[in-house]
What we know:
Blueprint: H1 2-43, E1 48-63, E2 68-82, H2 100-127, E3 131-140, E4 155-159, E5 162-163, H3 167-175, E6 181-188, E7 191-199, E8 202-205, E9 209-211, E10 214-216, H4 220-225, E11 232-236, E12 239-240, H5 244-252, E13 258-265, E14 268-276, E15 278-281, E16 285-292, H6 306-335, H7 347-364, H8 368-385, H9 393-406, H10 412-443
Antiparallel strand pairs: 1-2, 3-16, 4-5, 4-6, 6-7, 8-15, 9-10, 11-12, 11-13, 13-14
Helix pairs in contact: 1-2, 1-7, 1-8, 2-6, 2-8, 2-9, 6-8, 7-8, 7-10
Amino acid sequence: MYSATLLTLAAVKAKALPIIIGVLFFGLIIAIHEFGHFIFAKLFKVKVNEFAIGMGPTILKKQGKETKYALRLFPIGGFVSMEGEGEESDDERAYCNQKTWKKMIIISAGAVMNLILGLILCFILVSSQDAVGTNRISGFYEDAMSNSVLQVDDEILKIDGKRVFSNYDITFLMQRNASGKFDFTVNRNGEKITLEDVPFQKFTSGNFSYKDMAISNVSAKLKKAGLKDGDKILSVNGKGVATDDELIAIIRTDEDFTVDFEILRGEEKLSFDDVSLATVTIFDFTVYPDCYITFNKGEKLELPTVNEIRAISGESVNYALSLGRMVYLSLFDLIRGQYGLNDLSGPIGTMSIITDVAEESVETMDYSTLYMLFAMITINIGLFNLLPIPALDGGHLFFMFVELIVRRKIPQKYVSWVSAAGLVLLLIFMAVISANDLWKWISGIGFM
Length: 448
């Protein structure tokens, strides 16, 4: 009885810990953003009525000399309520009565704090690795295809016209192109040259797990095609499969990245034709290390060398730039239709991803993926908030830039109308995304 109780408590802890980690980190990202607004408002002597983390009903609150500090129920947002924000006020300390440059700093400080947090997380990530990589090719794997064009010591400058800041960019940029051929710009012996249609091997990824003749963890895309967890695959492209290795071999040799499945669902045999699967590009070359990271890799505490600090700091900035550009490139891909609604995640979907990654990190004691995810999220939030969209920080900054250009203040009522309209549209968009997240969580299939 006692041992069974301990086992149950351990199971609850194992499930609860990832959720707690997700909530705490998500709350930290929001708190850092709002703290940026808050601290600069205080530095400029602006009257702050309330500083809140979270949304919805208040759980805890404390009244300071003039500011109420509150923790609210839902960890999906937060706010800093300043006197004269969104309305006129006669108080000389009101936000609306401050000089434009002060208001611009206060508004942009939240996003800047998110970017600083992302940079810190990138520093932790890079320093935990064994080496800092470069963009210069050191060798090729056996059966590589790209060495028919690329050469050892080529320094990769661009891939498909996009600049390569760090070796992290190489993988990301190569996954944006489904053709398996890429245009490289390299520095070869001091000469910048462009190499077109550099070939790489691509293979098909199943987007599901396969064990004991049954599939599981089926992606939303495959579920929409009709496949379900628990289906037993009998044949692929007309060829019978009996083992995991046979299935993988058939899928990876598929050349058009679509397959025909015959499955057994209960007692019923079903066929699914032309099912599109994901593709993976084989990264078939290695790069030179900038330096090896040796501190804190042994049993005793060691301080980093000057060379290690230089390499880690530079690579951390490059990594943060790579993650930041990934946000904007993904946004452009969304606009041109490469991604759909099911590829977006709101607070519910984001928390689901965070808890899944946190659970895996707790089990493996490897937190690198979790740190990378949080770095990506905080940089995403920082950059997204700077977009010139009404109701976002960037929308307010846009109005302030207009004020600087025309040299007169835009009436607050017009700013409020536009911001309110933007907020309504943003809330509708978030509601759709959150509903889609919830539906994917329940059924595994999104709306679109």
